[in-house]
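Entry 12.
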Amino acid sequence: MKTWNLDALYESFEDESFQNDLQETKKLIDTLNEFAKKEFSNLEDPKQKIKAYLKQEEKLDHLVRKLYSFCSLTMSVDAKNKDAKKYLNNIQVALSKTTFASTRFSKWLPEVNNLDKLIQSDELLKEARFYLNRIVEGAKYVLSDQEEMVISKMKQTSSTAWSQLQGELTSTLKIEFDGEELSLSALRNKAYSKDPDIRKRAHDTLLDALPEITPSIAYAMNGVKGEVNNLSEMRGYDSPLDEAVFKSRMKRETLDTLLASMREYLPHFHQYIKRKAKLLGHEDGMPYYDLFAPLGESNREFSEEEAMTYIFKNFKTFSPKLENLAKRAWKESWIDFTPRNGKRGGAFCANLHPIKQSRILTNFTGSFSNVITLAHELGHAYHGDNIFSEKSFNSSYTMPVAETASTFCETIVKNAAINDANKEEKIFLLEQSLMGSTQVIVDILSRFIFEKNVFDKRLETPLNEDMLNDFMLDAQKEAYADSLDHDYLMPYAWVYKPHYYSGGLSYYNFPYAFGLLFAKGIYAKFKENGPAFAKDIDLLLEKTGQMTVEDVADLVDIDLNDKDFWRKSLDVIKEEIDLFLELTE
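Predicted 3D structure (tokens):
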């Protein structure tokens, strides 16, 4: 079993450096609060105050990221780890105290006279220009010192706790299947089985097992969405969606153009799903349990090492820098590969800025789709590698561009595999690619519809599991239309998707569609311009922490409010659909 190594952070919770950093963090928080209380009470010598604040904040951020990452990464593979839970709560309580300094700074900074001129006079402030201007722009959404302090403390026992509950219940649920006791993620992986009987029975088993935890997770959904609704209104946002768009550093016009383009191309995706359904013997649309069924001939199973070797070879076609990053991730044990009880489902990459490394979690079982997932997460690591040279205040990129490098990297691997394949393998690989694209366009649209309906209805009433099931079914019917068999949908898709349970990150769905189509457009430019364009992409990734998404796109001459850009990206997928339909005629 290949697991990651976290020693570059800390060797254990008893590690002297972990304990020392924890104590140093608490001292720094007190120091920063004292500084804010004293210095942000007047406008004297603003340049030195801003610089001093930035330096203290960066030092604190470095420590907090290390401590928090060690706890959260440990919990992600061991949900019941008592030390991880204890210290994660300890850190969260300490972090709630930073609200005082950040709130004071956010209210003080807009009062500084001639801020632009001040920034222009100093190299550090020039570097922090975007960060400082975003604080000024967002100041209108900041509440009073006391309100922000209370909110920060209350979150620990509300949305944060609800999120942890959802994570623990879904990662520790044990389900009997064919004489084995499986985790939820392991059972869900049966959807990729070649055996149609296994796929259907796994689906039915899942439907029977989930009601054990759905009442509790429905409470978690209500707690998180209720909190977000209330705070969004208090802060002055028009809605949680408008808050999500602002936090994404994008214009609502950009999101609307993206969604309209996705809806315009839905019929093409429906054609693909209907053809796949017929090939599997379904005449009334695709039953949900066969959405991920493999088609075509490819008996290849990958070991972890074979998967990484395959990725190395294809990453090299983009640049040696990308290949070397993947090799480093393998050599230095950045990746936790296989599913097990207590480990969360799905996959993610955590960029660890203080140590200039990343950590990747997958639930690898050897399929080609698992290889694509690895490529996707290594793309996130590559994004981190490009941004590690920046100071911490320029290292936080937003949801939409967060999926750009990852989707670009999976596109490299998918396209290379399809080009090398014979007809039967090509059908298999095309279908794997289209399966992923359909999830990111059609299913993501259903998740967006679901989440918006939940937010809207939560304003009126709490939602029980039956209501949430109905919302999910309605969203699936709207996005998939008649391409799915409406007698076999997945009402519980809200239960095991962790994206719905973040109090600070709503609508974590449309960024996947943005990332896919943005990456498709960038990949087309790469194919057109050749290897030299790799440096432009590196620059784009490097600047994502200090630009709006529109300005990031402008670095490679892309206008995100031009519907034709999105159409051209969607046409790349349509070409795959057309080829799939031709090969399976």
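Annotation: The CA atoms of residues 304 and 509 lie 29 Å apart. The domain at 164-169+184-298+421-583 is CATH 1.10.1370.20 (Neurolysin; domain 3).
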